[in-house]
Design a protein that fits this description.
The complex is a heterodimer of chains A (121) and B (653). Chain A contains 5 helices and 5 strands, in the order E-H-E-H-E-H-E-H-E-H. Chain A is an alpha/beta fold and 121 residues long. A 5-stranded parallel β-sheet of chain A has the order 2-1-3-4-5, sandwiched between helices. In chain A, helix 2 runs parallel beside helix 3. Chain A is globular, with a radius of gyration of 12 Å. Chain B is of the alpha+beta class and 653 residues long. Helix content of chain B is 53%, strand content 14%. Chain B has 26 helices and 15 strands. In chain B, the strands form 4 sheets. In chain B, strands 11-12-13-15-14 form a 5-stranded mixed β-sheet. Chain B has a 4-stranded antiparallel β-sheet with strand order 7-10-9-8. In chain B, strand 4, helix 4 and strand 5 form a beta-alpha-beta unit. In chain B, helix 8 runs antiparallel to helix 9. The longest helix of chain B has 53 residues. The radius of gyration of chain B is 62 Å and the shape is rod-shaped. At the A-B interface, helix 4 of A face helix 8 and helix 9 of B.
Chain lengths: 121, 653
């Protein structure tokens, strides 16, 4: 289906996401622990889609999102929020994030958000 | 388009001012259609005008013929002429010509083209043309009217059709249980919405701004998010992307006592985007969920109570003590009021956490609202005096805060659940199995010690057994017309091997019977003596090294040694000489002797004289002892000493 890059500082979250995505027949091509690492991997791996945690050390999700879109304005980014729905998610969507998921997430929710993001334009 | 007079210009016969009148006459005779001529001066500029009717009027006057016929025309021509430019439009032309003197109104109008005379316009021709034009205009108007009329009919039909459609849609909407409303980017709600909406918002909502409409139902943050999300949603060109914003909009709100679920749908409408809002009343569903949650919480609370009974009991007792005593102590100190409030707040906050942990959510919720009130006081300390804080504290009733949760525990577990001891229920078979296992694994003294102690777990508490006599005492007291308060057992806890102490446990009832029957007086007798009408029984167990002492006392009339001595002699227990040699104590302990009864007549309850003797027999058989002490009108005290089976067993077995 799609090649996906996971950017999340929590190992547990990455593991859970990876399992869900692979069960949904996607390929996880890379895992990054913070925004900076995420940008590097995005450049080299050119994934179809990025899942991006909002709260991370070094570079937070919003800044990372801006950088990713600066590199590729058509980048498909799905935000992962532990802050629930709110102003931060509105900001992310306005900046150009394709969709978002709130933590704690379930498989169905994740796969729906990702397929919506992939079929967006 | 501007219509000029150019098309009306006719040529006309021109005469020089020197021509004689008969030349004009000749012209009119030869040209009956000519109604006038123009007279030019020597420079070729129009100097006058001769109209046929005017010419013959002048000729027809007395001497007119002789005056004008052979003399130059300039004598009879009209010098008042109207010269107009060919570019003049018809309306202006009409206005100017009709504005002439009444006599001149029908005179030719001279037309100039770039300052040079080029012809005339006759008024009859002008009027004819005008009326023809009017006719054409009227015809045009008529045909336009016809077209308009037809269009109007069509429009009416269309409008009716739309109206019917709208009405049927509205009817559909109105009959749905849901509220439907919609708006565009300006957030103004369309007139077409279902009547359920009026119901939900308690007002007519047509043309209102959706953001303003929702404001009272959302907190500031939610409302801000709603407004900003709607802005983004309408701005977003891509429909799929716009759809993602929908999930940021509020999905539920509370209107009065009703819970309303909101769903949103984007509808494309020509160039514009319409947002449809679907409102569903979910109050009933919510109430059911709440009830289910409540039941779930109750079960959790009961489970928590079973698991941590002592902790809950202590937490309740601590909180009760805090509000009734310790809180007031906090206020007694000489410090700023604000700090006192802060301390109170901290205590209440900790307490809240404690109760929440124990699943006592209603209590926690009540403490939470108290915490809210305290935090308001912390923020606005003005006007807070210690006295007002004290008064505030006095309004707090912890028992009321904890009541609902305690009621749940009591309903499920019985009213005394929290008050009773920590108990666990273990199946007797498991203990037997444990004894077997221990017996197999250990030997000698260890085995005896362990088996004994495990068995001891199954022994009942003497305290519990004695407390159980309360009911019996009450029934007995009622029968005898006495009032006796309930007693508790104080002192140490003693567990006894029921099989070994069976005889004692069976006969101790005689002692209680004796106290009720002989010890405690009737209420009227008690009040005569200045005592409380209700008699009291006290019971205490004290553990010693290898035995325990059980004292049971009452505040009754005591034992009269003289009466005992007399009866003892009467019954032949002692001789008169022997009785007088006995101490007071020895005499009153006669009541434990076989066949003694102080009652004159044997009654059903006590007095057969066997009860206390039987008790003494059982006690002595166990290797114990019983004695009685009494002070007249102050009370009686039975002291029973028994070997502690626990220690006895461990040594003897």
């Amino acid at each position: 289906m799609a090649n996906i890059l996971i950017v999340d500082d929590s190992g547990m979250s990455r593991k859970k996401l990876k399992t869900i995505l692979e069960n949904g027949s996607h390929t996880v091509v890379g895992e990054a622990q913070d925004g900076l690492e995420g940008i590097e991997q995005f450049k080299t791996l050119a994934p179809d889609l990025v899942t991006l945690d909002v709260t991370m050390p070094n570079m937070d999700g919003i800044s990372c999102l801006e950088s990713l879109l600066a590199i590729d304005e058509d980048a498909r980014v799905v935000m992962i929020s532990a802050l629930g729905k709110g102003d931060t998610m509105l900001e992310a969507l306005n900046l150009g994030a394709a969709n978002y998921i709130t933590k704690p997430f379930e498989a169905e929710q994740v796969l729906n958000a990702i397929s919506d993001a992939l079929n967006m334009d | 388009m501007k219509e000029t007079i150019a098309s009306l210009v006719e040529t006309v016969r021109v005469f020089s001012i020197k021509e004689p009148g008969n030349a004009i006459h000749q012209h009119f005779e030869d040209n009956p259609a000519s109604n006038g001529i123009v007279v030019m001066d020597n420079d070729g500029v129009p100097a006058g005008l001769v109209m046929r009717t005017h010419f013959y009027q002048m000729i027809g006057t007395q001497f007119g013929f002789s005056i004008y016929m052979n003399r130059p025309v300039e004598l009879l021509m009209k010098r008042q002429i109207l010269c107009l430019d060919i570019e003049l439009d018809l309306a202006q032309f009409g206005f100017q010509t009709m504005n002439r003197q009444e006599d001149d109104v029908y005179d030719y109008v001279l037309i100039m083209k770039q300052g040079i005379f080029c012809g005339i316009v006759s008024i009859s021709n002008f009027l004819m043309t005008m009326s023809e034009m009017k006719q054409r205009q009227i015809e045009l108007l008529n045909s336009q009217q016809k077209i308009l009329e037809q269009a109007h009919i069509q429009e009416q039909a269309l409008r009716r059709e739309i109206e019917i459609k709208n009405r049927s849609i509205k009817k559909l909407l109105d009959n749905a249980d849901q509220g439907f409303l919609s708006f565009q980017q300006d957030l103004r709600i369309y007139e077409e919405y279902s009547s359920v909406c009026d119901d939900i918002f308690d007002r007519k909502i047509a043309h209102l701004n959706f953001g303003c409409l929702m404001e009272p139902f959302l907190d500031e943050k939610q409302h801000g998010l709603l407004i900003n999300t709607l802005k983004s949603l309408f701005r977003q060109k891509n429909k799929a992307r716009a759809k993602v914003f929908l999930s940021l909009l509020p999905s539920e709100f509370r209107a009065g006592n009703r819970y309303i679920n909101i769903r949103y749908k984007i509808i494309a409408f020509e160039e514009n985007r319409i947002l449809m809002v679907i409102l569903t009343d979910i109050t009933d569903k919510k109430a059911l969920e709440k009830k289910q949650d409540q039941e779930k919480n109750n079960i959790k609370l009961v489970l928590s109570a079973i698991q941590s009974r002592a902790e809950i009991r202590d937490a309740v007792a601590d909180a009760r003590r805090f509000f009734s005593r310790e809180a007031a102590g906090l206020l007694g100190q000489d410090r700023p009021v604000q700090e006192m409030v802060k301390d109170l707040f901290r205590e209440v906050h900790t307490m809240k956490g404690d109760f929440a942990l124990r699943q006592m959510h209603d209590t926690a919720l009540n403490l939470h609202s108290l915490e809210d009130r305290l935090s308001v006081m912390m923020e606005f300390p003005e006007g807070r005096s210690v006295n007002r804080l004290k008064a505030f504290l006095e309004t707090i009733c912890f028992d009321r805060m904890v009541k609902k949760d305690l009621d749940v525990i009591h309903d499920f577990m019985g009213a005394t659940f929290l008050e009773s001891d920590n108990r666990i229920n273990i199946n007797a078979h498991r203990i037997e199995a444990l004894v077997d296992a221990v017996a197999n694994r250990f030997s000698g003294e260890d085995r005896q010690f362990l088996v004994h102690h495990i068995n001891e777990l199954t022994w009942p508490s003497l305290n519990g057994i004695l407390t159980g006599y309360n009911d019996y005492i009450q029934i007995l007291a009622l029968k005898l017309g006495k009032s006796i308060g309930g007693f508790t057992v104080t002192g140490d806890n003693v567990y006894i091997d029921r099989s070994r102490y069976a005889g004692f446990l069976k006969t101790i009832i005689h002692m209680f019977r004796n106290i009720v029957d002989h010890g405690i007086e009737k209420p009227e007798d008690r009040s005569e003596k200045g005592k409380d009408e209700t008699g009291r029984i006290q019971c205490e167990i004290l553990k010693q090294d290898t035995c325990f002492t059980l004292t049971i006392s009452d505040d009754g009339k005591g034992i009269d040694p003289d009466q005992i001595a007399r009866i003892a002699v009467e019954k032949g227990i002692y001789s008169t000489a022997r009785v007088s040699a006995l101490s007071r104590s020895e005499i009153i302990n006669t009541i434990f002797m076989d066949s003694f009864s102080t009652k004159q007549q044997v009654n059903m309850l006590s007095g057969r004289g066997v009860g206390l003797a039987a008790l003494r027999g059982e006690i002595e058989a166990l290797g114990g002892s019983i004695k009685v002490d009494a002070v007249t009108d102050y009370g009686t005290c039975f002291t029973i000493v028994l070997p502690d089976t626990a220690t006895k067993n461990s040594r003897q077995d």
